[in-house]
């Protein structure tokens, strides 16, 4: 099993800027290989499909929403033992200097706790994380104050299945093609549903850090995208790593004029119909 000397966990919700931060940290070569190690569902061995985000959709026009979602793909159950699961994650996430990094979205916390129960860690999230890593990690909390922008970003991603724009082509979840984006449509009910989901995740992280008396390193989306290299440098410093290794941003912004137009429309619809607009 890979020896971990130091660990950190980037805690976030979808479309908060988390990949920009972890890709920047990964590019240093000394800050672990932080990926979303906890996203795969046990019954498919795959991340949640677009439909999964809408399984409890209670807004208007459910058939219209379903028709816009990216089609599901088949998977296979993850039959690894808990020990194998842990070894795979430690191997994949650790750089040769013994630093492990990972990214955890709040919706993935039940999966992490469930896997860790096989390691005889029968408690809450903190117990599960300690059982997995064997050391107490540093926590980094990524937040996006503008939940309308965040939800629009996710509504476009669940339609197109394009989660990242990585000019290096190194990300497995790169582009789906312009045709998928042509087929994507604005839908106020769908965006409201995602805004509620993302706001709830952010609130859950706030509650958890308060309850655990942890003061995480905080990264706000607006500041991260304004100054990605400097923000990454300050996180490296907080981790005791060399801030001069912070790279220029390895990812490109995905949002464009179309996203901005959907955000404007959503804000107006949210005012009119009482849809969520803030994270609180
Ligand atoms: N370099 C750079 N500059 C500006 N913005 C950037 C950059 N890299 C990533 N991003 C934006 O981050 C948003 C994606 O967030 P996440 O990485 O947390 O999403 S994911 O759920 O993990 O896929 C998503 O936000 P939107 O632009 O609003 O769609 C990305 O475009
Ligand atoms: O709903 C499926 C998943 O969508 C996002 O993850 C995908 O993009 C991430 C950023 O490139 C990548 O780290 C991940 O492996 C991809 O599956 C979202 O960040 C996930 O939380 C979500 O499960």
Give the SSE map:
Layout: E1 6-12, H1 18-27, H2 62-68, H3 82-93, E2 99-105, H4 109-117, H5 125-133, E3 138-143, H6 147-160, H7 178-183, H8 188-211, E4 217-220, H9 221-226, H10 228-238, H11 257-273
Parallel strand pairs: 1-2, 1-3, 3-4
Helix pairs in contact: 1-10, 4-5, 6-8, 6-11
Q: Could you characterize the architecture of this molecule?
A:
By secondary structure, the chain is an alpha/beta fold. The chain has 11 helices and 4 strands; from the N terminus they run βαααβααβαααβααα. The chain has helices spanning 18-27, 62-68, 82-93, 109-117, 125-133, 147-160, 178-183, 188-211, 221-226, 228-238, 257-273; strands at residues 6-12, 99-105, 138-143, 217-220. Strands 2-1-3-4 form a 4-stranded parallel sheet, with helices on both faces. 3'-phosphate-adenosine-5'-phosphate sulfate is lined by residues 12, 14-20, 149, 153, 163-164, 225, 228, 249, 251-255, 259. It catalyses: alpha,alpha-trehalose + 3'-phosphoadenylyl sulfate = 2-O-sulfo-alpha,alpha-trehalose + adenosine 3',5'-bisphosphate + H(+). Keywords: Carbohydrate metabolism, Transferase. This is Trehalose 2-sulfotransferase. Belongs to the Stf0 sulfotransferase family. Pathway: Glycolipid metabolism.
């Amino acid at each position: 099993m890979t020896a971990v000397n130091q660990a950190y966990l980037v805690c976030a919700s979808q479309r908060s800027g988390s990949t920009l931060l972890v890709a920047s940290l990964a590019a240093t070569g000394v800050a672990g290989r932080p990926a979303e190690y906890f996203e795969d569902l046990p019954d498919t061995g795959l991340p949640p499909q677009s439909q999964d985000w809408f399984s409890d959709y209670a807004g208007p026009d459910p058939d219209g929403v379903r028709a816009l979602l990216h089609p599901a793909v088949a998977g296979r159950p993850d039959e690894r033992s808990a020990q194998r699961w842990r070894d795979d994650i430690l191997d994949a996430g650790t750089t040769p200097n013994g630093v492990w990094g990972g990214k955890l979205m709040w919706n993935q916390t039940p999966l992490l706790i469930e896997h860790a129960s096989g390691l005889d860690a029968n408690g809450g999230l903190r117990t599960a994380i300690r059982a997995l890593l064997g050391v107490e990690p540093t926590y980094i909390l990524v937040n996006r104050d503008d939940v309308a922008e965040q939800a629009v970003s996710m509504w476009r991603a669940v339609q197109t299945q394009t989660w990242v724009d990585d000019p290096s082509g190194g990300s497995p979840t790169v582009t789906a093609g312009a045709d998928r984006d042509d087929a994507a449509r604005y839908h106020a009910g769908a965006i409201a549903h995602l805004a509620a989901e993302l706001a709830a995740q952010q609130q859950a992280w706030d509650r958890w850090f308060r309850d655990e008396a942890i003061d995480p390193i905080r990264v706000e989306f607006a500041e991260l995208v304004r100054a990605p290299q400097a923000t990454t440098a300050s996180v490296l410093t907080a981790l005791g790593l060399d801030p001069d290794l912070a790279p220029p941003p390895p990812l490109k912004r995905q949002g464009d004029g179309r996203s901005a137009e959907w955000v404007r429309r959503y804000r107006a619809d949210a005012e009119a119909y009482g849809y969520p607009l803030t994270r609180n």
